[in-house]
Amino acid sequence: MQAKSVIILLMSNLESYKVVISDGTGEIVEKKSRFIANVFAVESQQQAEEKIAEISKKYWDARHNCYAYVIGKNSENTRCSDNGEPSGTAGKPILEVITGAGLTNTLVIVTRYFGGVLLGTGGLVRAYTQAAQAGIANCEVGEMVYAQKLTIEVGYNMVNNVQYYLGQNDISIAESRYEANVQFDICVKECDLDKIKSGLTQKCEGQLQIIEGDKDYYRL
């Protein structure tokens, strides 16, 4: 009988959270059983379910396609499934790997091809844990930080000043536009906002315009 999915709601206020930037895969072999982990960035339950259906179709001949996902800026939507493995031996260990890595908006599906040897509950937990870890290890992970978006508009004579100041303060330019004037889009942590605005104004001798945009989670 297929194990029922488990839904857990987690709420917290975070200044930042980690996400998968690029998908990845990993594989381990335990007593002739293959455990193939596929890791995806997802932003909704529907997107996660579509990926689960896609992997289940791809590995249609596998014994199990177990999964877990965490969705939401505050990890508020969490689900896992053992997909026929003994209760608590697959979905929960995968979920614990995701949460242990501090990730959200992340789906991990571990496909098992049975090798003919029973692993026991402890062996299954270890195998699904190691497979999920292998998959995440092969992904690019980034941090989303709550920040203020700023657009800096300057004349061409101040471009080098802006670029130098941002480089000195390790601030990436998200986008540049070269028109009548030059505009640079950046994102700044709220705690650094006054300092950066003041520093840019001083560096450009007041010859700039700073336009405040949305506050949201951005990759810095």
UniProtKB/TrEMBL annotation:
Gene3D superfamilies: 3.30.70.240, Impact, N-terminal domain. SUPFAM superfamilies: EF-G C-terminal domain-like, Ribosomal protein S5 domain 2-like. One of its GO terms (biological process) is regulation of translational initiation. Residues 152-207 form the UPF0029 domain. It comes from the Bacteria. Pfam families: DUF1949 (PF09186), Impact_N (PF01205). Residues 31-134 form the Impact N-terminal domain. InterPro entries: EFG_III/V (IPR035647), Impact (IPR023582), Impact_N (IPR001498), Impact_N_sf (IPR036956), Impact_YigZ-like (IPR015796), Ribosomal_Su5_D2-typ_SF (IPR020568), UPF0029_Impact_C (IPR015269), UPF0029_Impact_CS (IPR020569). GO terms for cellular component: cytoplasm. Belongs to the IMPACT family. This is YigZ family protein. It comes from Butyrivibrio hungatei.
